[in-house]
Amino acid sequence: MMDPEHSRSVPPGSVPLEEREEVLRQAFLSFQSASESLVSSYSALERRIAELSEDLTQTNRALDRQGSFLEAILESLSAGVVVLLPGGVPLYRNPAMDAFGDPHSPAFLSLLSEKGLWPPSKESLREVSVAFDHGGRSWVAVRRPVKGPEGQEIGYVFVFSDATRLKEMEEEVSRDRRLRAMGEMIAQIAHELRSPLGSLELFRSLLEREGGSPQGQEYLGHMATSIASMDRLVGNLLYHTRTPSLEEEEVDGRELVLRLSRDLSRMAASSSRERTPPDIRALVPDSPLLLSGDGDLLYHALFNLATNALEAVMALPESSKKEEVFRRIRLECAQGLAGEVSFRVFDNGTGIANEIAERIFDPFFTTRAKGTGLGLSIVHNIAVAHGGDIRYAREDGWTVFVLTLPVVRPPGDRFGGVRR
User: Is 70 exceeded by the pLDDT of residue 232?
Assistant: First the structure.
């Protein structure tokens, strides 16, 4: 390379051609090297840009999938969800919000304001929950702030959950507790009544043995009827409020029906008074009909069925012919082909309306003004506890209840408690 000072003093034409060509060649090589370096840097930049573009595309796809998944979750929720901007403008709502109300309606913010949920106070940076009634339903509303990158509030999420069923369940639990307490009280009262009832029956039987006037015997019959009715009521209360233990024994079904016929005839004669008593007949086999069960509970179940039949026939109007006995009750027991024992109670009384037939075994269901609604429910429970069943039917104008019990229980299968 020549000295600049020397080059200025040397005329251009005096520089040798070879030297000028060398200078140009060196300059071209430097330019070529710089160009190659620039191309290489540009290629690397292009590759980096392509890598970043791919990463951004994948990130956007992932965000789209997450957004779609989140939206699918929100749309599948049974609770209503709405997002409000600080000014109260709805930004998002899921379909379940339709059950609560329209966030775009002016009444929506008015309702939130009425319940203390809007506008949020600056001091309220926490979750707020409020329970209230709206549109005939019970709701629980939750408000939670949405934070921005710098911690500022950029919106609010509201969740509205229908708590109607939960409130109903809480009321049912509370009612069950009250009924349980009432049941315990009733059971205690019934237990206390059992002792004087037993004494009354004892003295009544003693008076009956002593004889007396026909009028006195009639009074004793009335006493027996009243005692039997009270004992049935007390027994129903006890069996409903407490689960009795079943004592398995050999029971003669034939004797149960004959005893029931005697007791029911005595009650019918006492309750009829000036009216013609109903015709009560017992159709039983000639020999004992044995089965396994709790004799006291089985008799109580049959007694409930029979007294219901008596009340049904006594509700019929008096016949125009005094000599005609048109009120009839028939008590039967028989053994089936599979060895089961069936008790049947027939009556030609007022019958049972079709629209209530499915409810007659429900506890506390009754059509009588003074009924407790426990009689048939307890019959059902006693039947189930013995491994049997009870059913109702209509046959040729008769109302029929059939209590069916297994004659022999499987080995090792002990009786359980009466189902409440």
Answer: no
Burial 207-227 (b: 16+ CB within 10 A, else e): eeeeeeeeeeeeebbebbbee
In a domain, 72, yes or no: no
Closest CA to 77 of 163, 137, 135, 159: 159
Same domain, 118 and 215: no
Q: Give the pLDDT score at 194.
A: 61
Q: Residue 219 maps to which CATH number?
A: 1.10.287.130
157-160-161 Cα angle (round to 5): 135
- In a domain, residue 3? The reply is no
Q: Region 285-305: what's the mean pLDDT?
A: 90
Q: Provide the number of structural domains found in the chain.
A: 4
pLDDT tens per residue across span 73-99: 778 888 999 999 988 999 889 999 999
pLDDT at 234: 66
Residue 404 pLDDT level (bands cut at 50, 70, 90):
very high
Query: b/e string for 236-263 if b means 16 or more Cβ within 10 A?
Result: bbbbbbbebebeeeebbbbbbbeebbeb
Check which CATH number belongs to the domain holding 82 and give it. Answer: 3.30.450.20
Structural domain of residue 236, as residue ranges? 170-242
Instruction: Give a yes or no: residue 12 inside a domain.
Output: no
Is 254 found in the same domain as 236?
no
Residue in 412, 403, 340 with CA at minimum distance from that of residue 376: 403
Helices 214-241, 375-385: crossing angle, 10 deg rounding: 60
